[in-house]
Amino acid sequence: MTQSNAILGPQTVIAWDFDGVLNRNIVDGRFVWADRFEVDIGHSLDGFEKAIFRNNFDDVITGKVDLRNRLNEWARSVGYVGGVDALLEYWFENDALPDPEVGAVMDTLNDRGFRQVIVTNNESRRATYIEGEMGFGERVERVLSSGRMGVRKPAAAFFALVTETLEVEPGQMLLIDDCPKNIPAAISSGWRAFHFTGDTRHELPLALGLS
Contact at 8 Å (CB) between 63 and 124? Predict the structure, then answer.
């Protein structure tokens, strides 16, 4: 485990990953929103995942391809008649599972005046949903997403663009992320990092100096 080893300073900016950290939507590597997909949507989940995620999904994540267009291509190919916008709403609603324990840590940090942002590999439509419908736009300074920035974690350019946008030094940044690849990448960019897992989540308040 790699984590910050100092109590937060007054200039620290806490950078939260979203899925798997603030949003408890991943169980044993599985995105639970899709558990009822075949029952509710009436089409093969495997076919959907192949069309959406296994077809250079990085182009969607980094904003080169609109997620809605990708969904529309799948809908036409399988004869789905439920409407792409309704499908997007179904997806985003069922994928919205904020973690109350981690949210409480975020609220405590806000009460203590710390700057907080979300740094996420999400395309722009879901980033907007996270800000608005899920209410995180009122809880953090900014939602910095790969779809808006044109680059994704763990690329060094992602971390550099975050610090440039926030007008801070890399050493001020503390990443909280569940993806193993993102932790060393952040540290290589001069950030501190806490690897958030099922085994380390209970250590987070202590690592942040909250207990």
Answer: yes
Helix, coil or strand: residue 54: coil
Cα–Cα distance for residue pair 12/9, rounded to 1 Å: 5
At 137, which amino acid appears? G
End-to-end CA distance of the chain: 19
- CA–CA separation, 196 and 180 (whole Å): 9
Cβ contacts of 209 within 8 Å, gap of 6 or more = 7, 8
Residue 211 — very low, low, confident or very high, per pLDDT cuts 50/70/90? confident
Q: Smallest Cα–Cα separation from 51: which of 16, 23, 87, 15?
A: 87
Beta bridge partners of 173: 13
Task: Please tell me the pTM assigned to this model.
Answer: 0.94
Two tokens, residue 55: 């077809």
